[in-house]
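> example.struct
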């Protein structure tokens, strides 16, 4: 999303985007510019609803850019449970989940069988989404212009980003208490993984996992 004249925020799906959007729209209204995709409500619309670095319009090119990521092991669990209860029927999820009949482990085992460039994989692979949004690849480093934050520390990181961008103090003061995160309901993500499945996710998304030092951590 773009906060006109202040900053650009790039974020992976399921990394607090709803929280950020609602907070900024409350304080800045129409100055918050969102991608044009209508998503799953409109099967003819462009699927991806998250700005990518390459999508930033020329007039916003001088603005500071902030990005958010999430632990991939946690992200897959959240992604699966969100769509398993979503009221619309995104075709790629329905295909991989066999019309929502597969549990998480079965879903992931099925997902991994699809080629990287297949429609089912294109919208479901953490790395594919990350590389598209941040305009990089396993062999092309992310643009250092993008200052990164994490879903795990989203309130602190967003406060730091927006403060440096000159956002009003009233908005900054509300970040710590603004908790609308569009959470999906599930147990601690680590409980959904066998050692084998956890290793498959690592091999699939190792570039991102290694870059940010993520680990599969059991509940405290």
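> example.seq
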């Amino acid at each position: 999303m773009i906060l006109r004249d202040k900053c650009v925020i790039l974020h992976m799906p399921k990394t607090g985007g709803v929280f950020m959007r609602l907070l900024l729209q409350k304080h800045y209204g129409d100055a918050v510019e969102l991608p044009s995709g209508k998503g799953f409500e409109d099967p003819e619309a462009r699927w991806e609803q998250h700005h990518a670095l390459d999508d930033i319009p020329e007039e916003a090119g001088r603005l500071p850019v902030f990005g958010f990521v999430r632990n991939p092991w946690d992200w897959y669990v959240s992604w699966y449970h969100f769509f398993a209860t979503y009221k619309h029927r995104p075709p790629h999820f329905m295909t991989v989940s066999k019309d929502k009949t597969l549990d998480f482990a079965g879903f992931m085992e099925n997902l991994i069988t699809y080629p990287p460039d297949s429609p089912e994989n294109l919208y479901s692979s953490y790395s594919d989404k990350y590389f598209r949004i941040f305009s990089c690849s396993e062999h092309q480093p992310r643009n250092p212009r993008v200052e990164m934050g994490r879903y795990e520390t989203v309130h602190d990181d967003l406060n730091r980003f927006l403060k440096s961008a000159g956002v009003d103090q009233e908005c900054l003061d509300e970040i710590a208490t603004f908790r609308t995160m569009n959470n999906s309901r599930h147990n601690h993500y680590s409980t959904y993984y066998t050692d084998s499945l956890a290793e498959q996710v690592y091999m699939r998304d190792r570039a991102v996992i290694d870059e940010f030092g993520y680990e599969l951590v059991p509940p405290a």
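> remarks
The chain is about 40% helix and 10% strand.
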